[in-house]
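The protein record passed on for reference:
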Amino acid sequence: MEQPTYTPKEFASLLGISKSRLLKMEADGNFPQPHKQNGMRVYMPFDIPLYLNIIGKDKLVVNKRRQIFLNFKGGTGKTSVSAFYGFRLAQIGMEVLLIDLDPQGHLTQCFSIDYSNFDATLYNVLIERMDIREVIIDTPVKNLKLIPANLDLSPVELALTSMNARELRLRKCLAEISDDYDVIIMDASPSIGLLNLNGILACNELMVPVLADFLSYHGLKILFETIATIEEDFDFILDNIYIFLNHYNASLNISQRSREALQEHYSDYLMKTIIRQDTKMAEAASMGMPIHQYAPRTRGTYDIDAFIREIFPKLPIAI
């Protein structure tokens, strides 16, 4: 993963203005001077909010979002989607924090971060009361941060059992830093335990990837029953629930039938955007690279962009 940059033409197009207007406003002193890379004029994602403000456009994000990617069924591709989605949000200028809630550390590995590069996880925050800022690590992208995970996180479930307010500890910790980020994205393991319960109660949006098969479809019933119980027990309600089809192959009859079943029974939550089957996405994840850098012009990148436009319908930039 590398720090993304934009050429003047790309940056102007993203802002919805002409390249000539961009260069003229810089020459007139209305914009800050761009960065230089190998003698060339370039722009960084973290420049986008400043430029939007100068030209009088809306903010990228009006309301802070805290999202958890969760499905009790494994193998739905939630980790790669959450990683690529988080990177892309940072690439278009948002301040993003990714949180790996899985002791296997798959989200961490999606960014080629070695287990030896960090020595603290959420275990130290939730159990040992370490300041959450101390476990946040930098990535090559300035406005993309990560709370990583490895097997050191494994004992957290047992350790939480005897603690006071055990279900709300992550919410309390995130309250200290929530103003620092436009979007906080959590990747959860395919289970319901105290750590994932902490994640749900710390979020205001649930992102549910499903495969176009009937095992995924039936698993949704258990998930929704669990969420209903959590909302009732904790006097808590999610602002939004997004169900989306992942690895979708329209040529398969079972895929079409599964989609029709989802539309019939979960139409209030089912996203219009479908993330189609794309081998480049699997390759990118295995290489520890975001799909927008590994293969920037594939079905996967177009679908992730459409996914973002649906979740953030009032984006003031063109992606």
Remarks:
- Residues 102 and 189 are 5 Å apart (CA to CA).
- Residues 8-54 form one domain.
